[in-house]
Design brief:
EC number: 3.6.3.44
CATH topology of the largest domain: ABC transporter transmembrane region fold
Main location: membrane
Membrane topology: Multi-pass membrane protein
Number of strands: 10
Structural class: alpha/beta
Largest sheet: 6 strands, mixed
Helix content: 55-70%
Mean pLDDT: 80
GO molecular function: ABC-type oligopeptide transporter activity; ATP binding; ATP hydrolysis activity
Number of helices: 20
Radius of gyration: 35 Å
Strand order of the largest sheet: 6-7-8-3-9-10
Strand content: 5-15%
GO cellular component, one term: plasma membrane
Low-confidence stretches: 1-12
CATH superfamily of the largest domain: ABC transporter type 1, transmembrane domain
Length: about 600
């Protein structure tokens, strides 16, 4: 199966099976662990074995005290038996603890990995408009910090909550089997501790939510600051950026301080309550022993188990802030998983081949948060193989037209047909495999020039690669570089000039041998000589392919089959260069200013 087809199946499965539920973090967490329940069960069995010395030590101590205090004859063998049993249980702790950690880690790390990879998959199917509203820094905080918090929550549940439940169960079972009055005392004491949690619950949730949002805001601000460093330095605005980051950092500091103080106060209140209750237990069991209702050694047993009960309650109180933080992170990551603004391709028509016949029929478009129409009943019929150039003032709708042609956006009204088919009914993922685009802002990734040109294409012959390099006027550039095609371009291609980066982007588009070519200011960063080479090469390359060009240079569009003047979201004039110049209309005025 080809990687692309495999990815499509994965994306379809992701859309069908959603493990996140809106504001239901516990249900979400349980669903996330589906497929790992057997590992967890094995882990808890191992925990029961490894933790057994903690439960049996009070029993052994009580037995020894009662044996000694009974005053009976030779009872040394009973003491030896008790100690031997305890020693065996202690030694078993080593293998059982290893197995416990192993199964817990296998489960939690698998869930952590699944969340991250599924988060990436979800981001790949979310629509382009949705991505435009996402801030990279906030997204990074979700992928790194929030997923880590979910893992911590999972670990807390496995290492704390379940052991707490087991400890309480064992302590109450043994206590009930020996003395119902003491067990009742235990049960009546617990609500006092949980009452403390109730007092702090809302404030802890609120401060945790505020802290998480401030962390995301800080991450977004820092990310933006890094991107802006060249502009900031060029305009001597370093202090402006420092002040922005300083403001968000102080918000994180203040909110973090509130979280720390609140958690500390909660811990102090719970500790005092526990100490008071333990004194009360000692007084109660001492009274029962004084009345001969229990043996003297039983005081140690009950005091130890009561301490176990209170310590488990205290543990719940202490990890409660982490649990709230984890639940908040589940809701945070869930914002991405529950987003419905996705591209759905399954079940839609696939074109065996793209002829390149496009028809805009009264196409209007408006952004969701916009007031005015970007396109207003736009009409245009593009024949297969035509080269169409869009020109006009900034904000007229040219880039929006290209986004509609790629399928990034859908018309608000009207229809856009491709080879007679409404594009909203087509499998756009399959369609995009047959087109190539060079965006206005050149996007390169860290890697070699070869990697960037052949991005997403596993096998490209050297002959084909050389042909593309020649066509994109890259040959001389590559020959001058120290490692040729294997030269690293740096992050975002920062080791190259703007013109060199744009030529690599053009080569990346051309190597795909597309049916449709979309060029958004593809030659804007090239010098006149390089542009001349590319234009000559592209005359041959675009022959027989439908091509759309947005450009502000007259030289780039002069040889187009048709030039379309876009103004106010409408097609106000179109024709060849000669026809439009002869009309002396809108294009003529633009051409006098050399387009702009």
């Amino acid at each position: 199966m080809e990687p692309i087809e495999k990815n499509l199946e994965t994306m379809a499965a992701l859309e069908k099976e959603n493990k996140f539920y809106n504001n239901r973090p516990i249900k979400t967490l349980l669903t996330l662990y589906k497929g790992n329940y057997l590992k967890l069960l094995r882990a808890f069995v191992c925990f029961f074995v490894k933790h057994s010395p903690v439960w049996f030590t009070p029993i052994v101590a009580t037995n020894i005290i009662n044996i000694i205090s009974s005053g009976e004859g030779d009872q040394l063998h009973k003491i030896v038996i008790n100690v031997s049993i305890l020693l065996v249980l202690v030694l078993i702790n080593i293998p059982s603890n290893y197995l416990y950690i192993r199964y817990i880690s296998l489960a939690t790390r698998q869930v952590e990995s699944d969340i991250r990879i599924n988060l990436v998959k979800k981001l790949q199917v979310l629509s382009i408009p949705y991505h435009k509203h996402l801030q990279a820094g906030r997204l990074q905080a979700k992928v790194l910090r929030d997923v880590e918090a979910i893992t911590t929550l999972s670990t807390q549940f496995c290492n704390s909550i379940v052991p707490i439940i087991l400890n309480l169960t064992v302590a109450f079972t043994i206590t009930i089997s020996k003395n119902g009055s003491v067990a009742l005392f235990f049960a009546l004491s617990m609500p006092a501790c949980f009452f403390i949690v109730k007092l702090f619950r809302k404030r802890i949730r609120r401060t945790s939510r505020d802290f998480r949002k401030n962390i995301e805001e800080m991450s977004a601000t820092v990310s933006q600051m890094v991107e802006m460093v060249p502009i900031t330095r060029a305009h001597a605005l370093e202090q402006v950026e420092i002040d922005k980051v300083d403001s968000t950092v102080h918000k994180v500091k203040d909110t973090g301080y509130k979280v720390d103080v609140l958690n500390s106060f909660l811990g102090s209140c719970s500790w005092v309550s526990i100490q008071v209750l333990q004194v009360a237990c000692l007084l109660f069991t001492g009274y029962l022993a004084y009345k001969k209702e229990i043996q003297v050694g039983d005081i140690v047993l009950y005091q130890t188990y009561f301490a176990t009960v209170l310590n488990q309650v205290s543990a719940v109180i202490n990890i409660y802030p982490d649990i709230v933080k984890g639940f908040e992170s589940i809701n945070s990551v869930g914002e991405i998983f529950l987003a419905e603004d996705v591209e759905r391709h399954m079940g839609k028509k696939k074109l065996k081949q793209v002829e390149g016949h496009f028809e805009f029929n009264d196409v209007s478009f408006k952004y969701e948060d916009g007031l005015d129409l970007v396109l207003d009943e736009f009409n245009l019929d593009v024949k297969p193989g035509e080269c169409i150039a869009f020109v006009g003032e900034s904000g007229g709708g040219k880039t929006t037209l290209l986004n509609l042609l790629i399928g990034f956006m859908k018309p608000t009204k009207g229809t856009l047909l491709l080879d007679g088919q409404d594009m909203t009914t087509l499998d756009l993922h399959d369609y995009r495999r047959k087109i190539a685009m060079v965006p206005q802002n050149t996007i390169l990734f860290s890697g070699t020039i070869r990697d960037n040109i052949t991005y997403g294409i596993p096998t490209v012959s050297e002959e084909k690669l050389n042909e593309v390099i020649e066509a994109a006027a890259l040959k001389e550039v590559i020959e001058k570089l120290p490692y040729g095609l294997e030269t690293l371009v740096g992050e975002h291609g920062d080791m190259l000039s703007g013109g060199q980066k744009q030529r690599i982007a053009i080569a990346r588009a051309l190597v795909r041998d597309p049916s449709v070519i979309i060029l958004d200011e593809a030659t804007s960063a090239l010098d006149n000589q390089s542009e001349m080479h590319i234009q000559q090469a592209m005359k041959n390359l675009i022959k027989g392919r439908t091509t759309f060009v947005v450009a502000h240079r007259l030289s780039t569009i002069i040889d187009s089959d048709r030039i379309v003047v876009v103004s106010g979201g409408k097609n106000i004039e179109n024709g060849s260069y000669e026809e439009l110049m002869a009309k002396q209309g809108a294009f003529y005025e633009l051409a006098k200013g050399r387009i702009g």
